[in-house]
Design goal:
Layout lengths: L1 H6 L19 H27 L6 H26 L1
Length: 86
Protein backbone atom coordinates (compact mmCIF):
# COMPACT_ATOMS: atom_id res chain seq x y z
CA UNK A 1 0.00 0.00 0.00
CA UNK A 2 1.24 3.41 -0.86
CA UNK A 3 0.02 5.00 2.38
CA UNK A 4 2.44 2.85 4.38
CA UNK A 5 5.43 4.25 2.49
CA UNK A 6 4.40 7.85 3.22
CA UNK A 7 4.19 7.16 6.96
CA UNK A 8 7.78 5.94 7.06
CA UNK A 9 10.24 8.75 7.95
CA UNK A 10 12.79 9.47 5.24
CA UNK A 11 16.26 10.79 5.75
CA UNK A 12 16.74 14.35 4.55
CA UNK A 13 20.27 13.55 3.38
CA UNK A 14 21.84 10.36 2.10
CA UNK A 15 25.35 9.06 2.34
CA UNK A 16 27.26 9.04 -0.93
CA UNK A 17 28.31 5.71 -2.35
CA UNK A 18 31.67 7.13 -3.39
CA UNK A 19 33.42 10.15 -1.92
CA UNK A 20 32.48 12.24 1.06
CA UNK A 21 29.36 14.22 1.81
CA UNK A 22 25.66 13.94 2.44
CA UNK A 23 23.61 15.42 -0.46
CA UNK A 24 19.97 16.38 0.20
CA UNK A 25 17.31 13.98 -1.09
CA UNK A 26 14.05 15.43 0.26
CA UNK A 27 12.48 18.87 0.17
CA UNK A 28 13.43 19.33 3.84
CA UNK A 29 17.08 18.72 3.03
CA UNK A 30 16.97 21.18 0.15
CA UNK A 31 15.19 23.70 2.40
CA UNK A 32 17.95 23.45 5.01
CA UNK A 33 20.56 23.97 2.26
CA UNK A 34 18.69 27.02 0.95
CA UNK A 35 18.43 28.48 4.47
CA UNK A 36 22.15 27.95 4.95
CA UNK A 37 22.93 29.67 1.66
CA UNK A 38 20.66 32.59 2.57
CA UNK A 39 22.27 32.91 6.01
CA UNK A 40 25.76 32.82 4.51
CA UNK A 41 24.89 35.50 1.95
CA UNK A 42 23.14 37.56 4.63
CA UNK A 43 26.20 37.37 6.85
CA UNK A 44 28.45 38.51 4.02
CA UNK A 45 26.10 41.38 3.11
CA UNK A 46 25.81 42.39 6.77
CA UNK A 47 29.58 42.52 7.11
CA UNK A 48 29.79 44.57 3.91
CA UNK A 49 27.18 46.99 5.29
CA UNK A 50 29.05 47.41 8.57
CA UNK A 51 32.32 48.16 6.84
CA UNK A 52 30.85 50.53 4.25
CA UNK A 53 28.31 52.55 6.25
CA UNK A 54 29.48 52.36 9.83
CA UNK A 55 33.21 52.24 9.12
CA UNK A 56 33.49 49.37 11.54
CA UNK A 57 35.62 46.38 10.75
CA UNK A 58 33.49 43.46 11.97
CA UNK A 59 34.87 40.12 12.80
CA UNK A 60 33.05 38.61 9.83
CA UNK A 61 34.94 35.35 10.09
CA UNK A 62 33.35 34.66 13.48
CA UNK A 63 29.95 35.72 12.17
CA UNK A 64 30.25 33.31 9.24
CA UNK A 65 30.78 30.39 11.62
CA UNK A 66 27.27 30.79 13.04
CA UNK A 67 25.34 29.64 9.92
CA UNK A 68 27.95 26.94 9.29
CA UNK A 69 27.62 25.63 12.85
CA UNK A 70 23.81 25.60 12.67
CA UNK A 71 23.87 23.82 9.29
CA UNK A 72 26.29 21.17 10.55
CA UNK A 73 24.27 20.70 13.74
CA UNK A 74 21.07 20.06 11.74
CA UNK A 75 22.90 17.78 9.32
CA UNK A 76 24.46 15.69 12.08
CA UNK A 77 21.17 15.37 13.98
CA UNK A 78 19.36 14.17 10.85
CA UNK A 79 22.15 11.72 10.01
CA UNK A 80 22.22 10.29 13.55
CA UNK A 81 18.44 9.90 13.58
CA UNK A 82 18.61 8.09 10.23
CA UNK A 83 21.38 5.75 11.40
CA UNK A 84 19.43 4.86 14.57
CA UNK A 85 16.37 4.01 12.48
CA UNK A 86 18.31 1.58 10.28
Amino acid sequence: MQGDEDDEPRAWFRERTFGMGWPPVTWQGWFVCALFLGAAIGTAKGAQYLVHWLHVAPNWMLASFVPIAIYLWILLRVIDRHREAC
